Amino acid sequence: MDKINKVNEKERILKLLKxxxxxxxxxxxxxxxxxxxxxENLGHTNVDYHRGLRQGFGExxxxxxxTSKQIQDITLSMLNKGLSNIIVTRIRRSTVNLLTQKKIDxxxxxxxxxxxxxxxxxxxxxxxxxxxxxxxxxxxxxEEAAITSEVLGSHVTRLYDVxxxxxxxxxxxxxxxxxxxxxxxxxxMEGALPSIIGGLVSCPVIAVPTSVGYxxxxxxxxxxxxxxxxxxxxISVVNIDNxxxxxxxxxxxxxxxxxx
Length: 260
What we know:
This protein is of the alpha/beta class. It is built from 11 helices and 11 strands.
């Protein structure tokens, strides 16, 4: 079945190229067709093979609530299409064990609960993404953001446990913050750290609230509202515990040509 799909895909692309050559289709229309195909219905998932063409990076597998078999099917289908650097977020150890048994080449990061299938280690890391955490308890979310940015090709600097309870720790790192292109600030409790860092730097700041905190933290809602209501300019906010989303956005900002 996979060989048939590969043949059909090549035939479709070859047909498009011939139509461009003979003038029956414009290059722009051909590009639009390439950007909207192909995908494959696995029964439980429609796998988008051309997301990399449209967005610059392939489809990312969100592992939470997916069965190990579903993740295995999706991963194998993407590998069969020649894709690499496949990110699987929120993946369970049992699923990692299954994929390993199937001889799938993967790199697992247990703290971030993130796996990279067929990682390309030859990608040259560029720019400067800094990730700061309020406390050690925020590190799992930080690592999800950090590894995501690194796989996408950004150079990442980690500054952990520099929260507002000891501002001297933060101020000692000012030179690093000042040279960064984008900063991800991860914090739970009351979520004040992004406002402080945002007031010190000229680059964009991505705030990530975490569910770390005591009862009135409301599983991250308190930190989220604090970040959304920040009076510091240049701060954007992602959802609670969404390290992946922050890492993805940070990479895009880091690689913008207009950023010096």
